[in-house]
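Hi R.,

As promised on Friday, here is the backbone we talked about, encoded as structure tokens. Could you run it through your design pipeline when you get a chance and send me back a sequence?
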């Protein structure tokens, strides 16, 4: 995973467990479930009550941003066989952390 610190200050604790990321032992996001054919962007914010939420519309302060690359597909062995989606490579996911106060 590529981790970027957007600004100075303490960041939210997080843990990566396989294809999932858990913020502050509270909000867990299954990244492989959210991967699409186009890049996927997820905002993680604190709401007005200080609770973690997904989406900037519900949030008041950024905590993190997650950028998941588009799905990659295998080449079919035989002509006419369907392509299969490859598992998410966590090394290609970008996590941007914002300072929390």
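Update: got your reply. Pasting your designed sequence below so it's all in one thread:
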């Amino acid at each position: 995973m590529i981790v970027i610190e957007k600004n100075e200050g303490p960041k939210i604790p997080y843990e990566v467990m396989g294809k999932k990321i858990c913020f502050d032992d509270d909000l867990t996001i299954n990244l492989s479930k959210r991967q699409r054919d186009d890049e996927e962007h997820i905002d993680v914010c604190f709401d007005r009550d200080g609770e973690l939420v997904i989406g900037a519309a519900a949030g008041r302060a950024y905590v993190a941003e997650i950028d998941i690359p588009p799905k990659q597909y295998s080449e079919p062995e035989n002509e006419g066989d369907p392509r299969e989606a490859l598992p998410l490579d966590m090394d290609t996911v970008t996590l941007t952390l914002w300072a929390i106060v």
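One thing I noticed while checking it: The radius of gyration is 16 Å.

Thanks again,
M.
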